[in-house]
Write a structure and sequence with these properties.
heterodimer; A: mainly alpha; B: mainly alpha; two-stranded antiparallel ribbon; 67% helix; 8% strand
């Protein structure tokens, strides 16, 4: 399998170099700029595609993406993670649509949109803090109760 | 060969649609647990935790869907610049999240109201 990857990559790189050298018109500077653009796009796509395939096939396990960490008694699905996921996807899709449709420059992002994402992410962080606090509180309580039980049982009996 | 701009466009479409598609497919297939999404943990008087349906979770779910959906629709209708989010919508979102976090903190750290009242009396 690795040999196929290697040969496919090599043939692709040679084909791209040939295309840049022969197929493109313009001076050397233009050709190098175009080659770097294509190379960046291809590398970026391959990185993204490999991660996507690994997630789809389960090699990268994100099954706990929406789960709350904690004891069994704690609810399974996390609402704070869910809302953060929804807002992240919505803003990402919006950014892509706007970048594609704006022809001049990278679009300005309004402060209120950043605030929206900030509220969403802060909720996730505070939610994790509450969970951690509750967990440590419950551990402290169980330790205290077991210590109390031990000291009670080790008390000397009155005559 | 397509120009870098066209290549970047299709690359973005494939990767973004692929990511959304994979997550949606795993959600639909049950690989990502969404059970008990509306159930929040509650601390009992003896220090253990149980779960119960939480109004805070239900309202934050609907507010999230409405705010995110309306924003997406506005961008789809006019996708030349980011539409501004109104202060009222931002206040609604912040209030909803505060309500959810307050309910969660009360449920996990203090317990049910009757237990709090029992402790104070």
């Amino acid at each position: 399998m690795r040999r196929i990857d290697f040969w496919a990559g090599l043939v692709g790189a040679i084909a791209l170099a040939f295309y840049v050298a022969v197929g493109l018109s313009g001076d050397t500077h233009t050709k190098i700029t175009t080659a770097v653009e294509y190379m960046g796009l291809i590398v970026l796509f391959l990185f993204g595609f490999l991660v996507l395939i690994a997630i789809a096939t389960g090699r990268i396990d994100i099954s706990g993406l929406l789960e709350e960490k904690g004891d069994g008694a704690v609810g399974k699905a996390s609402m704070s993670r869910f809302q953060l996921l929804v807002f992240t996807f919505v803003i990402a899709i919006c950014l892509f649509l706007i970048v594609v449709n704006s022809e001049e420059h990278f679009p300005d992002i309004p402060v209120n949109v950043l605030l929206l994402l900030g509220i969403s992410a802060t909720t996730y962080g505070v939610s994790k803090g509450i969970q951690a606090s509750a967990k440590s509180d419950s551990i402290t309580q169980s330790t205290t109760s077991s210590t109390t039980t031990e000291s009670t049982t080790s008390l000397p009996k009155e005559p | 060969m397509p120009s870098p701009a066209i290549l970047a466009y299709w690359e973005g479409v494939l990767l973004l649609a692929g990511m959304v598609g994979v997550v949606a497919w795993k959600l639909a297939g049950g690989d990502y647990a969404l059970d008990e999404l509306f159930e929040g943990p509650v601390r009992e008087a003896d220090g253990t935790y149980t779960t119960q349906t939480s109004a805070g979770r239900v309202q934050i779910f609907w507010v999230t869907i409405i705010v995110a959906g309306s924003y997406l629709l506005r961008v789809i209708n006019d996708s030349h610049q980011f539409p501004d989010v109104s202060d009222g919508m931002l206040a609604l979102l912040a209030g909803s999240h505060a309500l959810y976090l307050g309910g969660k903190a009360q449920g996990m750290l203090l317990g049910r109201f009757r237990d709090i009242l029992g402790r104070t009396s």
